[in-house]
């Protein structure tokens, strides 16, 4: 009984982590892809990446925005979480080390994107847990 209770707590913990990561990724990804929530849209994001010297800014902008938006959707529903988290984590690592200087998030440092990247790596290692769309249809938790 205690083992079942611990498993349920772990699955609930993974659900909480997935939900907040999904909200953050969907928010920022939709701003970059579609200009939602006052975001720059793909053209604006591409221009900003180009101004920083990021190679192939249009392709890079699309890949980063898609990793955030579609990765956020997958993480939200618990679909292919171990695979969806990796491109999103890569995107956050790139953001941390290219768009931010220093560590302090209050001074435009890498604290926030680095935290997101590492939590995404943790999620990639752990999987979605039992509270996910696939397990709702009888699949084994990843």
Question: Explain this structure to me?
Answer:
This protein has one domain (2-130). Helix 1 (2-34) packs antiparallel against helix 3 (57-77), helix 1 (2-34) crosses helix 5 (111-126) and helix 2 packs across helix 3. With 142 residues, it is mainly alpha-helical. Helix content is 73%, strand content 0%. The mean pLDDT is 92. It has helices at residues 2-34, 41-51, 57-77, 81-98, 111-126, 133-136.
* Class inferred from helices and paired strands: mainly alpha
State the end-to-end distance. Answer: 22 Å
Strand tally is 0
Q: What multimeric state do the chains show?
A: single chain
The DSSP helix count reads: 6
Summed over residues and divided by their number, the pLDDT gives a mean of 92
Classify the helix fraction into a percent range. Answer: over 70%
**Which series of helices and strands comes N to C?**
HHHHHH
Please tell me how large the radius of gyration is.
16 Å
The portion of residues forming beta strands comes to under 5%
Which consecutive residue ranges, at least 5 long each, have pLDDT under 50?
none
Name the overall outline. Answer: elongated
What number of domains? 1
The biggest beta sheet is recorded as: none
Short recap of the structure:
The protein is an all-alpha fold and about 140 residues long. It has helices at about 1-35, 40-50, 55-75, 80-100, 110-125, 135.
Features:
142 residues; elongated
Topology:
Blueprint (H helix, E strand, L loop, with lengths): L1 H33 L6 H11 L5 H21 L3 H18 L12 H16 L6 H4 L6
Helix pairs in contact: 1-2, 1-3, 1-5, 2-3, 3-4, 4-5
